[in-house]
Amino acid sequence: MKATSFIPVCVAAGLALALTPIAARPMHAGIDYQRYLQEIDSVQSDLDQWRDMFGAEATANGWVPVSEDRSADDLEEDMRQRIFLSQQDVATAQAANPEANFSIFSPFSALTTDEFSTKVMNSYIQGNGSEASRTRPTRSLRQQIDFTTAQEMIEALIESIQAQSEAGTVQPASDDDTAAADSDITTEAPTTRKPRRQPTAAPSTATPTTAPTPTTSAPVVEPVTTQPAVTSATPATTEEAVVSDGDSVDWSASACMSPIQSQGQCGSCWAFASVAAVESAQCIAGGQSSLTKYSEQQLVGCDSQNWGCNGGAPVYAFQYIEENGLCTEDAYPYTSSSGYSSSCSSSCSKGKTGITGYEKLDIGDENALLDALNTHPVVVAVASGNAAWKQYTGGVMSSCDTSTLDHAVLAVGYDSSNLKIRNSWGENWGESGYVRLKRSTADMGTCGVLTDMLHPQI
Fold first, then answer.
1. Which of 70, 361, 382, 387 meets the CB 3.0–4.6 Å disulfide criterion with 447?
2. 256 is catalytic
3. pLDDT per residue over 235-248, tens digit each?
4. What is the pTM of this model?
5. Is 196 exposed, middle or buried (0-12, 13-18, 19+ CB in 10 A)?
6. Which domains does the chain have, with CATH numbers?
7. Is 122 tagged catalytic?
8. Which of 237-241, 288-292, 359-363, 435-439 has the lowest mean pLDDT?
9. Exactly one of 269, 302, 327, 447 is catalytic; which is it?
């Protein structure tokens, strides 16, 4: 009996070894290698499907690590293990966000969580917009550099900031930064437009997230799966422009919202969020009769107070736009998808957007955010360098496991329980480029969304 039972076990083990690629070995820290070997066939199937769906996009945007020193077998083995690790990220994110959906069929699944976090690390920089800062000499434009050098640059900048007390210093967001908002804002009077309705307060029973950082709940609206036709002048009436039921707003369904875009490898989220906010605010102020699509590349290449593809602060973007105007996207198209900031071009004709300043909302004030959203979209910062944002495909996200604000996005709506956020990672991410965050005032909202909020004044 013993011999009979032993033979099939040996045969099965031999078959498993025969099916294991010669190049197979642990290539990533933290991988459950034995489990990986058991699931290698299904992982390969998922990898093949992921390549069909996202391979070209991920490769074009630098979301697939490249190594010329590896053999084809090594590269394939590395990709399999990356997909396996992303499967574990999906499980972790799903357990922490039961109302959301996560999948390896997301553009970033070939990146480890650490690599993904590094990609967005320097994209958003927290700055204050005092009048003093407006008169200070601007910094020279920086070209894109590698992430290691960028991190050293930011760390050096932080050390310099700590030795200064003058207003207007750019501050990369850190865990400590998320605990205190910068109250030094422009002196322009706030907009006089009245909110259409009183927003519904966040549910008082919201359960704080178990994540160790600002990763609880914030507001949302049902996603719009089809984008309105976008031209430079799309007619729309006020009633048609905002989808609402008395306790909700959704500017993504408006003619005053341009199509979802992708920033590519460039850390230019600050430019995309700022330009989208100005486009929408101008369109809304003009009766929602037309939307002019403006140039993000102009900010990336010409705004010398920001850092191009190495990150930026929306406050400085708004200052630049107010003082210089913007070219249209057609006249100055986006060329930094590869991750490099091109030199500033002066060949296009800059038009005035009508922006007269900006208003920074009080830290943690959800009601102020909802009031502002009744009038127009609002730029917010979030902690996105985590598995939840990497693998998100839909539903309501309620927690993140990181707290550092590293990404600027645009809040475009809310309902009684959620916020709706416009991202700049392309239409294939999330809900056609959007994400919903659960409303909560605990820990500065889901993913820190209530920490740094501002909008242009027109």
1. 382
2. no
3. 333 334 455 556 89
4. 0.74
5. middle
6. 13-110 (no CATH), 119-457 (3.90.70.10)
7. no
8. 237-241
9. 269
